[in-house]
Amino acid sequence: MRPGQQLTLKIDHKVDYGYFLTDGEKNVLLHRSEITEDIEDMEEVTVFLYADHEGRLAATMKRPLISADEYGWVDVVDAVSDMGVFVNVGLSKDALVATEHLPPYESVWPQRGDKLYCMLKITSHGRMFAKPAPEDKISELFSEATPDLMNKELSGTVYRLTASGSFVISDSDIRGFIHPSERKQEPRLGERVTARVIQVKEDGSVNLSLLPRKQDAMSVDAEEILTYIKSRNGAMPYWDKSDPDDIKERFNMSKAAFKRALGRLMKQERIYQEEGWTYEKK
């Protein structure tokens, strides 16, 4: 008997804290907390073997959500620097997604509540590891997007991060891509996002944007600028002729977006400009 096996074993004897099961040569404990149905009158029981928190071989009637042959969505329950993230695989013990399978920056590691599409690997010593699916495996889930999705919103999960952008699988299994220019902040691996379809491609995938529509963005940008002005007692050293790089660094928006937002605020008579500065109207 070894960790990771699913076996049908005979009940050897009962103890206060569960049952000892046997394959005829070795015994293993099925703790009462791992019993999912009444086995009082059974002679045999089918169990999954794993190593408990003290490294001892143990049995459970629970079934793992994933296996070495079966990928599935699992919930992230914790993240530990220099180790990786732990995911709930349906057992009393969580599985580790090691750092080698995660982005190089912890800022975009999955957080508690995020989801990963993984398989399960159990070592001979009972350590449980989960490995995110490669592209060819997750592609088995994909369905084709239709042209009527243009400008509609899709919700889904970020399943892959690259230097070129973020890949998403929607709730309807459509493959989506978010270019860095279509977001203000890089989403986490495993994060749930809602994005707008900006292109339906011939291969059935879509390009997505996390940026608000222009008219909505103008309102958001205007409020961000006004909040910044108020935080500086009603004045800021930026105006519509400021350097684009300075605007990008301070507000994380393009100069065109910045000028549109300033124009909106001036039209509403909430600000005015003088000699390179912008002031709040009192």
TrEMBL record:
Family in the record: Belongs to the CvfB family.
Residue ranges of domain S1 motif in the record: 151-211
Source lineage: Bacteria, Bacillati, Bacillota, Bacilli, Bacillales
Domain of life: Bacteria
InterPro entries per UniProt: CvfB_fam (IPR014464), CvfB_S1_2nd (IPR048588), CvfB_S1_3rd (IPR048587), CvfB_S1_st (IPR039566), CvfB_WH (IPR040764), NA-bd_OB-fold (IPR012340), S1_domain (IPR003029), WH-like_DNA-bd_sf (IPR036388)
Protein name: S1 RNA-binding domain-containing protein
Annotated TM spans: none
